[in-house]
Design brief:
This protein has 108 residues and is of the alpha+beta class. The chain is built from 2 helices and 5 strands, in the order βββαββα. The protein has 2 domains: 68 residues, no CATH class; 39 residues.
């Protein structure tokens, strides 16, 4: 099993793939064994990709793919609560990463 990454509280994901200085893919623990054997994730994937756009600039792209659900109540909860909550959290996280990266670059 791959190493787990713990977030605040009970949140956790497993590092599914790392391309040094390029990308990192996190997967849900329930998908870890299947994905590491070459299968696909069913519960969710969170990818971070660094995309160089010039000699001095890099774009951070985050992609989240959640579990497919067929229940109407679950889809409604996802759209009305979870997607806005994730947007707020991820935006704040990306702005913090930007601020830290720019501070580090200005000292280098």
């Amino acid at each position: 099993m791959a190493p787990e990454s713990r977030f605040g509280g009970q949140g956790r994901m497993v590092v599914g793939q790392v391309a040094p200085e390029r990308a990192m893919v996190l997967i849900m623990p329930g998908d870890a064994d299947q994905v590491l054997k070459g299968g696909s994730a069913r519960e969710g994937v969170w990818s971070f990709v660094l995309d160089p756009i010039s000699d001095r600039q890099t774009r951070l792209v985050m992609v989240t793919v959640g579990a497919e659900t067929f229940r109407l109540s679950r889809r409604a909860a996802d759209r009305l609560f979870w997607e806005p909550a994730h947007f707020i959290m991820e935006r704040r996280m990306m702005l913090t990463i930007k601020r830290l990266a720019e501070a580090w670059a200005s000292r280098a």
